Amino acid sequence: MPPTDDTPAASFDGGTLDCGNGLLLLIRRHIDPLNAGQVLEVRSREPSVADDLPSWARLTGNALLSATRDGDGTRYRLRKTPRVEKSGVTPPARQSPAPVVASRPSVWRGLDESGSGDQRLPGGLAVMGIGSWPRPAALVKALHEWLAGRMPEDEFHGHADDAVRLAVAAQLRAGVDVVTDGEQRRDNYASFVASRLDNCQLIPVTDLLPYVTDPAKFAADLAALDVPADQIRHPAVFGKLRRSRSLAGRELAFTKSLTDRPVKVALPGPYLLTRTMWLECVSDRAYPDRESLAGDIVTVLREEALQLLADGAALVQFDEPVLTEVVFTRAAGRRTFMCGALGERGGQAEELEFASRLLKTLLDGLPRERVALHVCRGNWSRDESVALSGPYTPLVPLLAGLPVGTYFLEMATPRAGELGPLAGLPDDRRIGVGVVNQKLDRVETVEEVTALAEAAVAAFGVGRVLLNPDCGFATFADSPVASAAVAERKLGVIVEAARLLRQRHGHD
After folding, report:
1. CB 387, CB 330: distance < 8 Å
2. Sheet harboring 63-70: ordered strands across?
3. Cβ neighbours for 417, distance < 8 A, ≥ 6 positions apart
4. Is 504 helix (H, G, I), strand (E, B) or coil?
5. Shortest CA distance to 439 belongs to which of 484, 417, 470?
6. What's the mean pLDDT in 416-427?
7. How far apart are CA 183 and CA 266, in angstroms?
8. CA-CA distances (angstroms) from residue 369 to 55, 130, 403?
9. 380-389, 474-483, 494-503: which has the minimum mean pLDDT?
């Protein structure tokens, strides 16, 4: 039976804030810790809230119980409703457990004798994932409880530790050369920073309704997602960004305690975070423009990268998928639902120059051999038809000018085009070539993967080629694009293909 007690469990005064100027951030901060069925009372003296709050309530699934005039303002009562799973979504097919692939000696050279932590990533067809791994259901539940303030942080990390053990064990069974923690502690690959940076808040994307130019179309786009929109969170800045604790230091330390194999840590890139975090009428309370915000984003990412490298991360990878949104969506005459795609954007040349400047500032002076860049065309849906499409041609000049040692690129899907344009990348860079499509339930055959990898070897030379999936297996915690069993089998196939190619090319 639905609750009948309308007594507020929490309340606050929103003053004259409107929904597009911070009120929704305050509502989210107060309603998230409540249990389903409890009531939040919001006092407001802003007339426009009467029109905007009902739309927000409908979009988020919460119930607007009443709006009562009180002096010069209005008291609104909202009942928090339980999350309803979206119907009609087919989860990734469950596969039989993957056969254990015998581990082979790692081709990694390891730490140097000085103990400085300097590790050099080999070419030679080394195999690794991009970053994310499907999270167990218990962890996803714990993640929601923690983000809503209903679970202590230490208790959450206990659940996360168990999940990381599973993710690392699966990668080791598959035989990879480099492991990740599977991003198990993150709600998604990018917005997780909002839960760890000062003056930043995670809000569901449904709360962005007041900021978009076409609310009706935005609501329709959210309704078409593979996961309920209130489960996808977005970072919002409401003060000067500061990094008072590490973003991924705990991830690195715990993963290193589980294996002596090298560990890679992925971080969102500065352009992605700037596009994601800059929300007019919210961010401009702390920053005069997005360039100023970008400067602080670069600072916190650079601090984090330096710490991770010093603590023994073999490779720090920066993810910049929104670069493809810049060059492909406008030509298609549409926008894509991709993290950061909703943010402010200028013309193509302007945005690419801006992204290049941010990345170069971030990477300046970092050890090139231990930093990488990942680019794909969207990994939020298993429906290939909604993802971006186009060759790397317009991005090659930007990529070639960046001081990174490795590019991890989507190449297994026809949407990525041919290898030819990548000939413009410098000869001293490694190319991580996507050889399996993480979105497909079907596990590619060794022969299929070998053919793709052989084409890359012919183009770049065996010493420059690394092998990986096109993207992570679970960009969003609530919406993995593969099951853990399928992910392990796909990595195992890549490892076997790499073994055959090393034999063929005499590269042990």
Report:
1. no
2. 8-13, 39-44, 73-79, 63-70
3. 390, 391, 392, 393
4. helix
5. 470
6. 95
7. 8
8. 50, 17, 9
9. 380-389
Residue 110 pLDDT > 80: no
Cα dihedral: 385, 387, 393, 395 (round 10):
170
Q: 143: which 2 tokens? A: 């993640």
The residue-averaged pLDDT of 13-32 equals 80
- Residue 85: burial class (beta carbons within 10 Å; 0-12, 13-18, 19+): exposed
Long-range pairs, 363-366, Cβ under 8 A, ≥24:
363/402, 363/403, 363/404, 364/403, 366/302, 366/305, 366/306, 366/309, 366/316, 366/403
Q: State which amino acid sits at residue 138.
A: A
Q: At what angle do helices 270-277 and 322-332 cross, to 10 degrees?
A: 60
Task: Note whether 204 and 60 are within 8 A (CB).
Answer: yes
Mean pLDDT (the chain, rounded): 84
Query: Residue 146 contacts by C-beta under 8 Å, 6 or more apart in sequence?
Result: 152, 153, 155, 156
CA atoms within 13 A on the CB side of 280: 9
Under a CB-based contact definition with an 8 Å cutoff, are residues 96 and 485 in contact?
Answer: yes
What domains, with CATH codes, occur in the chain?
8-79 (3.30.110.40), 137-505 (3.20.20.210)
**Of the candidates 317, 289, 284, which has an alpha carbon nearest to the alpha carbon of residue 301?**
317
* d(C-alpha 58, C-alpha 53), whole Å: 9
Of the candidates 363, 370, 360, the one whose C-alpha atom is nearest the C-alpha of residue 405 is 370
Q: Can you tell me the distance from the alpha carbon of 373 to that of 272, in angstroms, rounded to the nearest whole number? A: 12
R_g over Cα of the chain? 23
Give the whole-angstrom CA distance, residue 94 versus residue 308: 35
Name the amino acid, one letter, at 117. G
